């Protein structure tokens, strides 16, 4: 459950969920593109929607897809040390999304 939760957090960030670092980059670009050329912006928005759908499809396949029975005996959930490696990345991901002005342009 720990690895799937961490993976889902990164999947949501890849989908540019508000409050993550990806949203801060994609939202102003999308707004500016709609003001400049709505056709190109519509195609870009379609690409973002397809990218989000692919991210969810990929997450679903990785986390709950078919796996070989012998793999389940070898695989274990990450231990505390391995989870602690992901913590700074998750904190940075949310911190950049909540307080983007702290980071240089």
TrEMBL record:
Gene name as annotated: nad4
UniProt name for this protein: NADH-ubiquinone oxidoreductase chain 4
GO BP terms in the entry: ATP synthesis coupled electron transport
Top-level enzyme category: translocase
Record flagged with keyword DNA damage: no
Domain of life from the UniProt record: Eukaryota
Key word Oxidoreductase present: no
GO molecular-function terms, A-Z: NADH dehydrogenase (ubiquinone) activity
Organism per entry: Cucumis sativus
């Amino acid at each position: 459950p720990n690895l799937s939760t961490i993976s889902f957090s990164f999947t949501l960030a890849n989908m540019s969920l508000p409050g993550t670092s990806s949203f801060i980059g994609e939202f102003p670009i999308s707004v500016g593109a709609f003001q400049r050329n709505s056709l190109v912006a519509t195609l870009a928005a379609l690409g973002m929607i397809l990218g989000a759908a692919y991210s969810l499809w990929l997450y679903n396949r990785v986390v709950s897809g078919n796996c070989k029975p012998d793999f389940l005996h070898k695989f274990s959930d990450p231990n505390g040390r391995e989870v602690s490696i992901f913590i700074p990345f998750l904190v940075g991901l949310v911190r950049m999304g909540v307080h983007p002005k702290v980071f240089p342009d």
